[in-house]
Amino acid sequence: MKVTKTLGQFIIEKQADFPYAKGELSRLLRDIGIAAKLVNREVNKAGLVDIIGEAGTENIQGENQKKLDVYANEQFISALTYGGECCIIVSEENDEYLHIEGEVSKDAKYIVAIDPLDGSSNIDVNVNVGTIFSIYRRKSTSGKPTMDDILQKGVEQVAAGYITYGSSTMLVYTTGKGVNGFTLDPSIGEFCLSHPNMRIPQDGHIYSINEGHYTHFPDGVKKYLKYCQVEDKVTNRPYTSRYIGSMVADLHRNLILGGIFIYPVTASAPNGKLRLVYECNPMAFLIEQAGGKASNGYERILELDVNHLHQRSAIFIGSENMVNKAEEMMSFFSPQQTKKNFNGDVVIQ
Ligand SMILES: O=P(O)(O)OC[C@H]1O[C@](O)(COP(=O)(O)O)[C@@H](O)[C@@H]1O
Ligand SMILES: [Mg+2]
Ligand SMILES: [Mg+2]
To answer: Which intervals hold domain Fructose-1-6-bisphosphatase class 1 C-terminal (predicted)?
Structure first.
């Protein structure tokens, strides 16, 4: 008989892996699971309730917030606030970080960065969306957490993961000891271990990139796309193009099947589109823990300096051999050349 292990049971079981474990991180992951269930409930009936469409407000990125962006943001902020383990929340939907004060969280040690609803452009059309979270432990031991606590490099993460709201709802996370996936069983309202010890294939045949921006791609990316699209029986090319437009959904597929996801610098996003703190770093930590690789085409994502909350970065992430090949193509062009191209300077071939 198959034994069902819930997320809560798994977290407690794994607690022993950590020297300073007093249950705080476990409770924090529990709180994230609670908010995920509330968001899942609204996502599942998005067409029936007044949760689709624009909220009429804009976030600091200049994006029109969707009602579900705002709802998801509220659910995660309140679950993390009431849970008492979180002292700082950084959210895509909040200009500034939130300092959680009050008796409940006076000894809170964790900083949580969150993309409450990823893939906002897909909400109203019933296509997979997600949530991304990244967890750090504060370094300073007393007083209000400092910017050094908040702007830590990706390598300092103690946990990271995502929730994908699709044909089923899954929570996938790492605490630096491998990656595990849990599927929400609506009949018992629990996330149950369904994908233990997830590993991304070292090689894959799927590339995910918004080719609509092709003309403004760096030459290294154009070169890599040509490589993906050339006929070659030995290396099983051409590869297949798959792009959902929700980072979580595209990466979840590639995590299981193998593949590469690329969001490079483009004319409209000269520093990349995706945000380092709550999109690139958590997904890079998770994919590396699953045996994959993540860079900005030149440097490891997790080693990038973090200078501000909503900083953007180019990202090449997925199966190790595919990211290596893409980096090889990028290496023909220096980062400066890559940057200069779409400022209208002469393309250097
Ligand atoms: O529409 P584009 O330019 O391809 O961008 C799609 C990317 O933007 C995002 O939607 C950005 O995330 P948000 O929806 O959280 O703002 C990613 O999920 C996705 O990979
Ligand atoms: Mg996002
Ligand atoms: Mg978002």
So the answer is: 200-330
Q: Which fold has domain 206-343?
A: D-Maltodextrin-Binding Protein; domain 2 (3.40.190)
The CA angle 169-171-173, to the nearest 5 degrees, is 160
What does the pLDDT look like over 237-258, one tens digit per residue? 999 999 999 999 999 999 999 9
Residue 197, class by beta-carbon neighbours within 10 Å (0-12 exposed, 13-18 middle, 19+ buried)? exposed
How many whole angstroms separate alpha carbon 104 and alpha carbon 107?
A: 8
**What's the rounded Cα separation, in Å, for the pair 251 and 243?**
10
Helix 247-257 and helix 281-289, axial crossing angle in degrees, nearest 10: 10
**Location of each CATH 3.30.540.10 domain in the chain:** 7-195
CATH 3.40.190.80 domain extents, the chain: 206-343
Three-state DSSP class for 294?
A: strand
26 Cα distance to chain centroid: 20
Continuous H helices in 266-334: 281-289, 320-330
Model-level pTM greater than 0.90?
yes
Sign of CA dihedral 9, 11, 12, 14: positive
Whether pLDDT at 342 is above 50: no
CB 274 within 8 A of CB 145: no
**Is there an atom of ligand 1 within 6 Å of 115 CB?**
yes
Give pLDDT tens digits for 63-72: 889 999 999 9
> With a 6 A CB cut-off, is 119 part of the ligand 1 pocket?
yes
Q: For ligand 1, say whether the CB of 120 is within 6 Å of any of its atoms.
A: yes
Beta bridge partners of 241: 207
Q: How many CB atoms lie within 10 A of CB 94?
A: 17
7-195 CATH choice from 3.30.540.10, 2.40.160.60, 3.10.450.50, 2.60.40.10? 3.30.540.10
What are the start-end ranges of the E strands in 234-308? Answer: 240-241, 260-263, 293-295
Give yes or no for a contact between 169 and 184, defined as CB atoms under 8 angstroms apart.
Answer: yes
